[in-house]
Amino acid sequence: MQLKLIKNKNVKYFRAYIDEVYIGPVYYADLKKAEIDIDFPGDEPDGNDQNILKEISETFSDRLYSVIYSKAFDKYSAFLAGAEYSAYDIKLKMKRNNYSDEIINDVIEALYAERYLDDKRYAESYIRYYSRTKSRELIIRELEYKGVTGDWMNDLLNEVYTDESIERDEVIKNLIEKKYKGQDLSDEKVKRRVAAFLLRKGFSFSDINSYLT
Question: How far apart are CA 196 and CA 199, in angstroms?
Answer without folding.
Answer: 5
